[in-house]
């Protein structure tokens, strides 16, 4: 009887204690790159799938420099309302939970980092606007200030909900502070430092957390690990939602169309240019961009191309490069929506150098072609030597360059004699007896 009672009590405990059921598996989602609509959709679906298949927890392995604030907000809402514990693990060594990644890490039911990782620098990016802290009191951009205040309030609410270091969280936004994993653990920003996935699951075994208001005891040590992969479409969207890729696609598209317009019939550059432009504009549908930056970017390319046709002694070329760099730097200058931007030195400067080199090669090619004598048309007949097919007394027919022409000679010419063309008068050539037999 006692044995039956114990079995019945165990059954009731399994059925009615959240998280106490035997942990069959832990799902793992991996983010390595920016936080954008595609990557956030992937993570939200991973949360939903983990709820459906009864996972003991969802482990998000994170390495990100930041991303879109609007997308981050959507993900945080899903994490805070998740029906399964979400463990955020900043890994591997060298990874960074920067900017939007700081919000995501703090929002996890469990926050963990690997040795050699860092977290912080969550201030919204605004090119040309003062940053947080001292020196931001005067002349600051109101959009940037609004974005900073929103981000500070948002991260404060997350830290309070997860009972983490609120003071440091706000400082990460307002002063862009960043710290390594050991200091993050000491300050109460994260819960665990673990060298790898297995150690992490072992160290959080038995930890209690709140899941939708109910107490949940983690049972993950030794659980089966099931990776959740991105679909191929999500992977493509994730790549296209990268600011650097968007700028390179726009540049390649503009240059491809230029080559097609200047050399009609080549086809391949034109087709490639159209595809790149379509993909580039599709990226802009995903990313919040600035029209001012886009106009400057495309205008810069147009000025560089115009240098080929206008003798500005390099002025249009220099202005084009300047517009290209400024436009690229400001293309995603929307601090109220995003904290990502185009990489200036690694991407914009090499791209501008490539455009400059391309423009220089075009100018060189055009200059050489203008310096060469005409290679087509009737004008090239002047100076050529042909053969008189009939007597020229003074008119007759000559054979030159594989064709028969009506001709008029200054002096009589016998059939078969060599003649030199001195002028083209409509469809008749003016000739004279040739001084040399070389054709």
Task: Please give the order of strands in the largest beta sheet.
Answer: 8-5-3-2-1-11
Over all CA atoms, what is the radius of gyration? 36 Å
CATH superfamily of the largest domain: 2-enoyl-CoA Hydratase, Chain A, domain 1
Mean pLDDT: 85
CATH topology of the largest domain: 2-enoyl-CoA Hydratase, Chain A, domain 1
Biggest sheet descriptor:
6 strands, parallel
Q: pLDDT under 50 segments (min length 5)?
A: 17-23, 127-139
Question: What can you see in these coordinates?
Answer:
The chain has 439 residues and is of the alpha/beta class. The chain folds into three domains: 2-231, 2-enoyl-CoA Hydratase, Chain A, domain 1; 242-371, no CATH class; 378-433, Beta Barrel (OB fold (Dihydrolipoamide Acetyltransferase, E2P)). The chain is 46% helix and 18% strand. Strands 8-5-3-2-1-11 form a six-stranded parallel β-sheet. The longest helix is centred in the last third of the chain and has 28 residues, at 344-371. It starts with a helix and ends in a 6-residue tail after the last strand.
């Amino acid at each position: 009887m006692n044995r039956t009672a114990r079995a019945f009590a165990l059954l009731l405990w399994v059925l009615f204690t959240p998280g106490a059921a035997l942990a069959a598996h832990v799902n793992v989602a991996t983010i390595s790159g920016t936080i954008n609509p595609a990557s956030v959709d992937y993570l939200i679906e991973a949360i939903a799938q983990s709820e459906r298949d009864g996972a003991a927890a969802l482990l998000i392995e994170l390495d990100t420099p930041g991303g879109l604030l609007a997308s981050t907000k959507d993900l945080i809402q899903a994490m805070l309302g998740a029906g399964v514990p979400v463990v955020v693990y900043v890994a591997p060594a060298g990874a960074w939970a920067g900017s939007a990644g700081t919000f995501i890490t703090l929002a996890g039911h469990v926050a963990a980092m690997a040795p050699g990782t860092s977290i912080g620098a969550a201030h919204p990016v605004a090119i040309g606007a003062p940053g947080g802290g001292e020196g931001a009191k005067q002349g600051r951009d109101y959009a940037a200030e609004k974005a900073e205040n929103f981000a500070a309030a948002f991260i404060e609410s997350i830290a309070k909900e997860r009972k983490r270091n609120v003071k440091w969280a706000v400082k990460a936004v307002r002063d862009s502070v960043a710290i390594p994993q050991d200091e993050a653990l000491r300050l109460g920003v994260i819960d665990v430092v673990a060298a790898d996935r297995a150690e992490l699951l072992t160290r959080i075994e038995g930890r209690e957390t709140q899941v939708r208001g109910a107490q949940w005891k983690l049972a993950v040590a030794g659980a089966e690990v099931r990776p959740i992969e991105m679909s191929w479409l999500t992977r493509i969207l994730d790549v296209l939602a990268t600011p650097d890729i968007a700028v390179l696609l726009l540049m390649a598209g503009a240059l491809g169309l230029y080559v097609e317009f200047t050399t009609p019939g080549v086809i391949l550059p034109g087709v490639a240019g159209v595809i790149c432009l379509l993909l580039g504009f599709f990226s802009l549908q995903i990313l919040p961009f600035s029209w001012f930056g886009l106009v400057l970017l495309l205008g810069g390319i147009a000025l560089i191309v115009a240098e080929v046709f206008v003798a500005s002694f390099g002025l249009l070329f220099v202005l084009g490069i300047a517009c290209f760099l400024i436009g690229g730097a400001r293309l995603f200058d929307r601090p109220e929506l995003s904290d990502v931007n185009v990489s200036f030195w690694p991407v914009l400067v090499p791209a501008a150098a490539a455009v400059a080199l391309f423009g220089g090669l075009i100018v060189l090619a055009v200059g050489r072609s203008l310096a060469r004598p005409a290679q087509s048309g009737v004008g090239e007949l002047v100076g050529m030597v042909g053969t008189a097919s009939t007597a020229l007394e003074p008119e007759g027919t000559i054979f030159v360059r594989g064709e028969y022409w009506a001709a008029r000679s200054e002096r009589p010419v016998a059939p078969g004699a060599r003649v030199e063309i001195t002028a083209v008068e409509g469809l008749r050539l003016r000739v004279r007896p040739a001084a040399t037999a070389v054709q």
